[in-house]
């Protein structure tokens, strides 16, 4: 079982979008039974809130089901529960390393690093550009699946 946690600042935009898109992609490829997929915030600001309307609207537009979700914050205890803890930007990675007391097992990654890029996925809560965020999430998901396949972690 590959256990994946997507993380962003508030867990209402990027990480929720990533969780829903990745869940959809692994189901479409017949790989869902190989994954546990969740998402978290690095902050407490949105705890308990539903996904941002921009996230909901973008998923509806592209025909991807929204994973039922309420924002929650990652904790130190979550470190042992996941194999991959994926942040969306440099600030997320910095906050994850602080909150998780470092990354001794090398589980924390920036999402677009799987696609060969050091770029951040910009926060659409600030930019308002859910189309760009969605495109980046697709790029990250495809890169991550390719990474898992190349590293022999997927069984199909």
Automatic annotation (TrEMBL):
<comment type="similarity">
    <text>Belongs to the low molecular weight phosphotyrosine protein phosphatase family.</text>
</comment>
<dbReference type="InterPro" id="IPR023485">
    <property type="entry name" value="Ptyr_pPase"/>
</dbReference>
<feature type="active site" description="Nucleophile">
    <location>
        <position position="8"/>
    </location>
</feature>
<dbReference type="Pfam" id="PF01451">
    <property type="entry name" value="LMWPc"/>
</dbReference>
<keyword id="KW-0378">Hydrolase</keyword>
<feature type="active site">
    <location>
        <position position="14"/>
    </location>
</feature>
<feature type="active site" description="Proton donor">
    <location>
        <position position="123"/>
    </location>
</feature>
<protein>
    <recommendedName>
        <fullName>protein-tyrosine-phosphatase</fullName>
        <ecNumber>3.1.3.48</ecNumber>
    </recommendedName>
</protein>
<keyword id="KW-0904">Protein phosphatase</keyword>
<dbReference type="InterPro" id="IPR017867">
    <property type="entry name" value="Tyr_phospatase_low_mol_wt"/>
</dbReference>
<dbReference type="InterPro" id="IPR036196">
    <property type="entry name" value="Ptyr_pPase_sf"/>
</dbReference>
<feature type="domain" description="Phosphotyrosine protein phosphatase I">
    <location>
        <begin position="2"/>
        <end position="147"/>
    </location>
</feature>
<dbReference type="GO" id="GO:0004725">
    <property type="term" value="F:protein tyrosine phosphatase activity"/>
</dbReference>
<dbReference type="InterPro" id="IPR050438">
    <property type="entry name" value="LMW_PTPase"/>
</dbReference>
């Amino acid at each position: 079982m590959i256990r994946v946690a997507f993380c962003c600042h508030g867990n209402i935009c990027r990480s929720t979008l990533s969780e829903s898109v990745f869940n959809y992609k692994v189901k479409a490829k017949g790989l869902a039974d190989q994954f546990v997929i969740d998402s978290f915030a690095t902050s407490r600001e949105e705890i308990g809130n539903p996904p941002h309307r921009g996230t909901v609207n973008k998923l509806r537009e592209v025909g991807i089901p929204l994973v039922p979700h309420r924002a929650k914050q990652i904790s130190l205890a979550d470190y042992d529960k996941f194999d991959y803890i994926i942040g969306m930007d440099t600030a997320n990675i910095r906050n994850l390393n602080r909150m998780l007391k470092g990354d001794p097992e090398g589980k924390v990654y920036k999402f677009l690093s799987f696609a060969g890029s050091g770029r951040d996925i910009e926060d659409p809560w600030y930019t308002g550009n859910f189309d760009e965020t969605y495109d980046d999430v697709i790029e990250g998901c495809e890169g991550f699946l390719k990474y898992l396949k190349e590293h022999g972690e997927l069984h199909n």
